[in-house]
Specification:
alpha/beta, ten-stranded mixed β-sheet, eight-stranded mixed β-sheet, 30 strands, 27% helix
Length: 600
């Protein structure tokens, strides 16, 4: 299997309906919008079933042209129960249609032109894995682009309605297999309903064997019959209404804390931020510029997928913020040494992103070009992210405790804050807080230099980096052991960074411009991956260990914590979440101890 998901080979019928040459089947018959309403929305009891709900989740097998999403969105806008109500769509697609083909389908329905334009403007990227996309109007799409047999087991959600819209069972059997139906049953909320155009006996039996009550009903259009199904309803089970925290404490106002605050503010929570420094970004997140570019691995591992999913989500989030806080740019990424040159060559042979985001220079060694990466200005970015939260500066948390009524933070001076949930985003100081059980963190000192930048946004990297955007040119950075209690700039680090600039930007004479140095402390873990998730107590969550990629990792990890805590579909694949679990180091140690015990 290639890293890059395949594009569908499309042809078009005389009346403008797309056909997949790979599956040998059309995407819909006749009026696709009418079909979506009659075959999916109505059988799933929509809109009636969401009218008294604060949150509702729809699952869809077969994203296709996004036409079902448009039909659902159109109905949601008309009948949304309240301004705070949320609709999640978890969708799956193996052959992601290019946006220009989807636009051709949407054009058949001019009454949806506005929604079509909004969907096409944030069309999913061609990359395997989960992509979280906020469409507005309280509607959020989580699209899994992958083979269905891999994607469904990677999903965590509680789905109220299923749209089964894959190609015909005979042409796409994996989409309708007993294994697929068993996964649907695992992901279904009590009373979940299923709508599909299919009436195949194998599909009826697979649904029934998975625990669904299945019935045949009159079909739509040229189809004589179709299937509807439902899971048993448990009157005692909680529905998918908002059951998450109302008041949240965020400890730390760096990029991790700022993204966590934004994620919970978006869910209507009250947020208090306790920051030990004087301003947001007082610590490691306060550099003049941050470079948001992907770290691409040659293998398709959970860590590699996590980095890619985090990059795509960060790009989407930052582009919603003020122009003064971020700039789009392309990055020339040069290999550092023979090992990295080999990795780049493997990426060129099997790229994880398409040419809209990643290209390769033809010269040896291979050079990566990251198109549409970002530079961000933390001094403006962090305040934009936390707008609406209550910021408490110079509020260092000494201890954190939880009981059945919530969580309490005690500051150094004795002041106390209570909330329903606390998320600790205190960087390398996270393990210092009494009552917090966190993985070991190694502090690493990083120094950068800044001079005035007057050129077009541009970046070049080879382990070191030089990024020019938003009026600054920032270069570095060092990655040293922290020897003092607080970060300090040094002449030796400046000399090292000047060598980086001379190597990457020989056209710049930095000595003539008196560079301004800044040192910060990065929080790193033993496997160089961050951690995000609940601690020992369900009222305390952790997000730290971001290393040198905080502006890349933080948005998705914050979104994942908020989704998991609030009982929503997860924003990332399960294997990725497991790879970032704060408890992973303890679990590994237990496995190793068990393995040693078996061999003695």
């Amino acid at each position: 299997m290639t890293r890059l998901p395949p594009l569908p080979r499309l042809s078009w019928t005389d009346d403008g309906i797309p056909k997949s040459e790979d599956a040998g089947d059309i995407y819909f018959s006749g009026d696709g919008l009418a079909e979506a309403r009659a075959v999916f929305l109505a059988p799933c009891g929509l809109p009636e079933r969401w009218r008294d709900r604060a949150r509702f989740t729809v699952g869809e097998l077969g994203f296709g042209s996004g036409l079902n999403i448009l039909a659902l969105w159109d109905e949601w806008r008309r009948s949304r129960p309240s301004p705070r109500a949320r609709l999640d769509v978890v969708s799956y697609e193996g052959w992601l249609m290019p946006p220009e083909a989807a636009a051709r389908v949407h054009a058949r329905h001019p009454e949806l032109a506005e929604l079509s334009a909004r969907l096409l403007s944030c069309w999913p990227d061609r990359a395997r894995g989960a992509q979280r996309i906020d469409l507005g109007d309280g509607l959020r799409l989580t699209l899994h682009v992958d083979d269905i047999a891999r994607a469904l087991p990677e999903t965590e959600a509680s789905v109220d309605a299923w749209f089964l819209d894959g190609f015909a069972p005979a042409k796409n059997p994996d989409m309708w297999s007993p294994e697929t139906m068993a996964q649907l049953a695992r992901l279904s909320a009590p009373g979940a309903r299923v709508g599909t155009y299919s009436a195949a006996g194998a599909v009826r039996r697979a649904l029934a064997d998975a625990g669904f009550a299945v019935s045949k009903v009159p079909g739509h259009g040229r189809k004589r019959e179709r299937i509807e199904a439902v899971t048993p309803e448990d009157k005692t089970a909680p529905r998918g209404d908002f059951a998450g925290p109302r008041r949240v404490l965020v400890i730390g106002a760096g990029i991790a804390g700022a993204c966590v605050a934004r994620a919970f503010l978006a869910r209507g929570c009250e947020v208090d931020i306790l920051e030990a420094g004087k301003t947001p970004g007082w610590g490691a997140s306060g550099n003049p510029l941050g470079l948001v570019m992907p770290r691409l691995d040659a293998g398709d591992t959970p860590a590699a997928r996590g980095l890619l999913e985090a990059y795509l989500f960060a790009r989407r989030l930052y582009r919603t913020l003020p122009d003064a806080a971020r700039a789009s740019l392309d990055v020339r990424h040069l290999p550092r040494g023979e090992t990295e040159a080999k990795r780049f060559a493997k990426l060129a042979a099997d790229p994880p992103l398409d040419e809209n985001l990643l290209t390769f220079a033809s010269a040896e060694p291979t050079e990566l070009r990251h198109l549409g990466a970002l530079a961000v200005k933390p001094a403006l970015l962090l305040p934009a992210l936390i707008e609406g939260a209550r910021l408490h500066a110079e509020a260092r948390v000494a201890a954190l405790s939880a009981d059945e009524n919530g969580v309490e933070a005690v500051l150094d001076g004795g002041a106390r804050f209570r909330a329903d949930l606390a998320i600790v985003c205190a960087g390398w100081e996270t393990p210092w807080i009494e009552g917090v059980s966190a993985p070991d963190i190694e502090p690493r000192l990083g120094q950068v230099e800044r001079i005035a930048g007057a050129g077009a946004p541009h970046a070049i990297a080879d382990g070191g980096y030089a990024v020019e955007a938003l009026g600054d040119l920032v270069f570095g950075a060092t990655f040293e052991a922290l020897e003092n209690a607080a970060p300090e700039v040094s002449d030796a680090a400046r000399a090292e960074n000047l060598e980086v600039l001379k190597r990457l930007r020989p056209d710049i004479d930095a000595d003539a411009q008196a560079p301004v140095s800044r040192a910060g402390v990065r929080a790193t873990t033993q496997d160089r991956l961050p951690f995000a998730g609940l601690a020992d107590d369900p009222r305390i969550a952790l997000l730290s260990g971001l290393g040198a990629r905080g502006f890349l990792w933080a948005p998705l990890l914050a979104e994942q914590i908020a989704s998991a805590v609030c009982g929503e579909p997860w924003a990332m694949e399960r294997s990725v979440a497991d790879a970032l679990d704060p408890d992973r180091f303890r679990k590994r140690a237990l496995r190793k101890a068990g393995d040693r015990g078996q061999t003695t």
